[in-house]
Each structure stands twice: as structure tokens, then as C-alpha cells.
Amino acid sequence: MSFEGQRIWITGASSGIGAALAEAFAARGARLVLSGRRREALAEVAARVQRDALILPFEATDWAALPHAAARAGPVDMLVNNAGISQRSLAVDTRPEVYRALIETDLLAPVWLTQLVLPGMVERRAGHIVGISSVAGRVGTVLRTGYCAAKHGLIGYLDALRAEVEQAYGVRVTTVLPGSVRTQVAANALQADGSVRGDSDANIDAGMDPAECARRILNGIEEEEREIIVAEGGEAFAAGLRFTDPERLFDMLSKAGDQLAKEREKGGRPEPARVSQTLRN
Fold first, then answer.
1. Among 81, 155, 153, which Cα is nearest to 117's?
2. How far is CA 34 from the centre of its chain?
């Protein structure tokens, strides 16, 4: 498929994967709508990739603002639900409000935005919904119970939505499962008390370049893949192992959980272990 002339709405477009997707889509002739919380950052992305892009800032969980945002975006050919936030805390220490924030941002917000654009796509019998989930949407890894719950839920919603609208109305649905990508996702992650972590992770710092991630996503969309796994090494292996040998995967991940529990008992700060490292040990 061609992206030339398509109107594509990207959330979380001010940095990371979202900004890289904006650049990649613009290079292939798409007309962009860029959303995120920070108008200035969105303007910087637009200035770099497409000066006439529509900048549409809003908070993903501002439920009252979402219908207005969808109306301003107008009919879109593709909605890319990319905005989200991660987590770095053990379940035993995590406050309920942290789970609420994660579920609302990573699951309810993309679901509701999709519900707002979906009727128009159904009426036109054309359109495309893309959801950026995560390998953590398949693999329940340590320090991310709320994040994993939301990302698992997003995959379930999109899989069920695809079943309802793909053949009946010609609306395509693509789920994307990135692994570690060099972004601020870890630094911006929520800790047990709801504070922002502030520091990155070794696995994120050593992750895939966002431009490469975006390239693989666009290639997968062009090839009409329904699910695109953008991961390497142990993370890609873990995503496959979830189906081929889940018991083995559960044992391996439990080792990482045991190590973090021992750190916690010593009064230390539990640090994320790379999935690839866990699978080797």
C-alpha cells in the first residue's frame, strides 16, 4: 500500500517512536496530524518533518477534550495510537493510583480515541487503526505489572476489533509490539509512589534506534501484516516463546523476579533486568 496523500494522525508524536513515525510517514508523502501534550515539542517535529502538519496538542486522558480533538483532526485515513507511559516498580510496593494512571493512559485513552474515529471509517468502509502495544503486551515481565496489563489489554481490544471490522467494513487493524527502543520511556516511567523515574535503563539505552523501529513498522504496514513484532535478541525470542513454550518462559522470568525480590529485601532499589539477559541465565 502507498502512504502518499493519506491523512495520518499520530499520538505521542513529540518524541521517540512517535516522532520517528512522523518523519517516516512524511518522507513517504503522508499528510500528518501530530498530537501530544507539549505544543512546543510538536512544533519542533513539524518544523523538521512537515511544516504544514496539523498540530493538535491534548492530554490523552482528558476525556472531555478527546471528542473536540477528533473533530479538529477531521476524517483520517489512519490513526496511530502511540502515546503511552511505562512503569518501573514492583507490584507489592505500587499504589493503586499508579495502576489507574497506567490503565487510563495506555489502554482506555487509545480505545476511546479509536471509538471516536471508528464510526467515520465504518461509514466510508475504509480506514486503518494502528496500535503501538509492546512485547510487554505478550510477555509479563518484572517491574511492569500495570504496564503489561494495559498493553495486553490493548492487544485484546485490537484483535477483537479487527475481527469485527476488517472484512465487514474494510477497516484494517494493525498491532505493533516493539521491544527496547532508545527513547525516554524508562526515564518517564512511573515508580511505586507515582513519581517519575528520571533515569533510563541499560536495556533501553542499548535498544533499537527509533528511526529503525519506524522503518520496520511502516514496512510491516505496507506488507499488510496484522501484527508487527519489532524486537531483537532475547525480547524477540521471549515473544515467540510465549506461544511455543510458555512454561519455560515463566520459569525464566521468575528468576528475574526472584533477583529483584532479594534486592528489595536488602533495601536496595530494584533495577530492571534485560529480558535477553534473563533468558540466558
1. 81
2. 16
pLDDT at residue 266 in the model: 87
Cα–Cα distance between 78 and 171 in angstroms, integer? 10
Cα–Cα distance measured from residue 66 to residue 145, given in angstroms and rounded to the nearest whole number = 27
Beta bridge partners of 80: 10, 130
In order of start, what are the domains of the chain with their CATH numbers? 7-235 (3.40.50.720)
What secondary structure, in 3-state letters, does 85-98 show? CCECECHHHCCHHH
Angle at 38 between CA 205 and CA 71, to 5 degrees: 120
73 — phi, psi (to 5°)?
Answer: -65, -30
Q: So what's the pLDDT on residue 273?
A: 54
Whole-number pLDDT of residue 122:
98
Q: Is 147 a catalytic residue?
A: yes
* Helices assigned H by DSSP within 104-144: 109-124
Using alpha carbons only, how large is the chain's radius of gyration in Å?
18
DSSP-based three-state secondary structure for 53: coil
φ/ψ of residue 179, rounded to 5: -95, -140
pLDDT of residue 272: 65
Q: Which helix (H) or strand (E) holds 235?
A: helix 233-244
Residues lower than pLDDT 70 in the chain: 272-281
> Closest Cα to residue 150, out of 140, 159, 142?
140
pLDDT of residue 100: 98
Paired residues of 264 in beta bridges = none
CA atoms of 77 and 279, how far apart (whole Å): 40
Question: Exactly one of 99, 147, 157, 169 is catalytic; which is it?
Answer: 147
